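Minutes, methods subgroup
Present: GH (chair), OT, SY

1. OT presented the first of two proteins processed in the latest run. Sequence and structure tokens recorded below as shown on screen.
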Amino acid sequence: MQLGEQSRFGVIRAIAWIYLALGLALVVASVLHVQFAGQRLGLLSAILPALLVLGAIGTLLKRRWGRYLSGFFSIILLIGVPIGTFLGGFMLYQLIHNKDLFSGAGRVR
């Protein structure tokens, strides 16, 4: 990995870790049936956060499918004004601008 490539991936890595933490927190809340925004979460509520975790892991591993999943959840986060909009928009920009950092399968690093 070249130095420039490593610094370009640094921002993506930081946001992917935020996505991972958010997804894990929501999965745990769903498994524990926590009441959130007036609704009691159930096991079915853990599906989308689990996909967020999977996307974050794929992004951290620089997989193309991880980039697509993180992009999908970034679009969803855009409606969460103001923090979600900033985080999702910035991640979308980084994922699109640095798409050359992601491989389809495994790649020697």
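2. SY then presented the second protein from the same run.
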Amino acid sequence: MELKSLPSKSIELERSLGVFKGTKVGLALLTLIALNLLNHVGRNIFAGAQPVIQKTIHASDSTMGAVSSWFFIAYMFAAPLLGWLGDRFPRRILVPGCVLWWSCALGVATVGRDFHWFSNAYMMVGVAEAAFGVYAIALVSDYYPHANRSKALSLYILAMTGGRALGFPLGGWLAQTFGWQTPFRFIAGVGILLGLLAMKFLFEPRTKERLWPGVSSEGNGSAISLRSLWRKSYLFAVLGLAMENFAFGGLSVWLPTYLHRFAGYSVVHAAGVLAVVALVCGTAGTWTGGLVGEMWLRRDHRALYWISAVGFFVAVPCVASILTYSHVPMLCGVVGVNLCLFMNLGPLNAAILNSVPASMRSTAIAISLFSIHAFGDAISPRLIGLISDARGLRLGISATIIPLAAGGLFLMAGARGVPHQDAMDDPA
């Protein structure tokens, strides 16, 4: 059954995100949320288990930072190479296929005796996660119209919160109790199961016909679609998200270790504190960003850019607070920066998607993913590790301040390039 064939009352409920069971779109959205939750649990168990892994293999900070950096390098190069598939083949098949891919790669990563084997296999996980991110976000945006796409994406991104909340303590506890390979093998098994189940609930929306208003799928439509990738509204939103990823990626990898060293927490305690912070701040920040962005968007077409810029500027003093020697300001800074950065995720992703036609969504997301990782978390974990080895981890954490300030400036500039009616095509 196509979305178009749903009764009009059901369509209105779907547009308001009021129904999550009993309808095709609601079940599909819940499936994507569950897969994204698993995605981020798997990604964050490495940070939670990192102190145990590092102690086991006697690795330096720069070596551990390099593992995450190579993961994101593989991620960013895979996105544009695989992203175009999402505009040409059924995403309902591609999405669970990626889940099965990364699950198998995680299992393979733990069977080698050499840590280099793990690092190389972990890069293959990054390739699969890149493709998943492209196809899954495109599906969410196709299921919901422009008016509440920001809120729909915020719900999807809330799974990142749960993933961080579960991944940190799960990785730390399983690694410390059963060995560093155990958390990765556990996620691999769950991933294979969920990947197979997802094929039942995902469906392919009718996206091929939905282009820019008044533009056909032939003739100059392709040229107009390609030109949309050079619009200020798209370029500056991507740059802003890149600065977000620089800070988020670096802090996610190093905050467990930072609290272990400077707050005196055990590995499990540090992971547990960050799990609670991620759960509370991620839920509050992501939902607030999506809701406020949607409400503000009714009054100002540049709202998605303004709310994200505010988040960046407020995050700067929060990072400075983390660098203090007192536990209370340190934890307040951790809470504040998580709240601000999570608040930006829904509006920024919606701004990127709202800048391009439906026929270009997978391609636009793929280019975006390459850019935000190339200038973001492909650099920051390794850079922070190098600075930490040379001058200490406090100075390494402070390296996130400049990108945060730059992100706010990028989004202020991007807001000027948003036309009053940014291109939008609602689901048929």
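Chair's summary of item 2: The chain is about 75% helix and 0% strand.
Next meeting: continue with the remaining queue.
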